[in-house]
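Self-study notes.
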Amino acid sequence: MLQETALRAAPENENFLPPYIICNEEHRFLIAGQLQGIGIAPQAILLEPIGRNTAPAATVAALLARGQDEILLVMPADHHVEDIEAFHSAIVGGATLASEGHLVTFGIAPSHPETGYGYIKAGDAMGESGFQIAEFIEKPDITRAKAYLHEGNYLWNSGIFMFNPSSFLAEVEMYAPEILNGCREALAGATTETDFVRLERGALERCPSEPIDTAIMERSKNGAVLPVEMGWSDVGSWAALWEIGEKDAAGNVTSGDVVTEGSTNCYVRGDRKLISAIGVKDLVVVETDDAILIADRDRAQDVKDIVGRLNDSARSEAVHHRKVHRPWGWYDRIEEGEHFQVKVLLVQPRQKLSLQYHNHRTEHWIVVEGEAHVTVGDEVQTLGPNQSTTVPNGVQHRLENPTDAPLKLVEIQYGNYLSEDDIVRLEDIYERGGPV
């Protein structure tokens, strides 16, 4: 969905410049790889060490873009748009209103009484196709949602915005000065690491966490809503993927190795294992390397409550994936015990890990695909499939893929302490200061 969002506003379309990407620092290598995979080079990837919702994110982007004073289009990365041509037409209409100083949001003409979306009440007409914003409304109950659909002047809140950076910053200064000051400080104290700009943590921690809607749009006198029909869906739950997915004759949407028997209207996804669904209906079943989810489709959004319970119990599944992306590739933690850990590493072509050593663990590397250029102490060697080497603790080492094909190997770690912070980097082409 990130790639689809970026491609909807790809720079080869004359209406768009390269994007700014704002994300949590934990996702930076995954996002950089996704963008590289579709040939999009962003103006910057801005890293948030702590999440602060959409108002600070938009403010940071506006501060960066103010010198160019182009119109900013702000899009979440997890939306689905079916009709790209209608989306681009809406952008043109929104740009006209934005150039006049209005803060524009896109309203989706509702097709049914949805209780999972916020709504916007359209007021007086503005320009050729826009309207003043009469009211923002939080997610309604089913009775109110049916009434909004019947009245006809209520739209789903898409969470997509357009504005002139200077106009937006003037509104932030008026209605949310603490956010503006926090974002200015976060940018002033930012550090650059190769392709990333890391916002200063202390400033962001002091910055209020608030969405654009409540911080700015609900207070602004310059808001405008532009109705659009573009096959939009906020893919905020697994149930939404069922809604937009290709269904079989029984109404099931499946992905991966899935067999259904007498099951109807289910969303079933398997990443690795075979899933058999027999005689069930209206379920979401998702199997990943990290966990398995089984939920009533109408309650799929309640997964956030489970995540809250996992956080309260300090469960690692709420924070860490088994598969971890790095600038050189990724590693997948496939087995671990008290004193050992087994990983599969994939090193992308022409990439290499940092020159480093560990104080508390020994590592064994076994190449299974490709060719590895290995440095262990003063010894440099080339390893092919079914060849291996051992890296004792305290010895500096480096792993490199010198070829144009991926390198895959199995790494077995053994020691009394196996956490990622037992990495002392001596040299790193990615300019990372710490283990992450």
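Second protein, same conventions, sequence then structure:
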Amino acid sequence: MKLIISTVVVGVVLFLLGWLIYGVLLLEYLKPYYGFLWRSETDMKIWAYALSSIVQAFMLYLIYSKGYKGGAPIAEGIRFGIYMSIFWGLPFALGFWAGVKVSYKAVAVDAIVGMAMMFIACILTAVIYGKQQKTA
């Protein structure tokens, strides 16, 4: 049951953070750098953004549940968040910048934002997962 709750809650949080940060707060900043790559508003695949967030949330829970060894959920979430943020953010930034003619500044901002979103998602995943019950 926690898998479903985490997938939905973390998925919705990732989707809404993505919309707020990329669709509102950074839209004008990133437009000169990425605008030529973006689909028009009428051609955007919002369902794909939503599905991406849900898959990411599902996988975060599965990975976390396999690696959790005990401890306070917040502390474990921070540890998991650091690992997953680096795992996801740095390769994305370097790979994107290596292959697409865009400014390193935009890619750096994008990577930092993505890593922060991942960090938040990991802490939330850990809190929902909670503590393992000790078996006698």
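Instructor comment on the second fold: The chain has one domain: 2-129.
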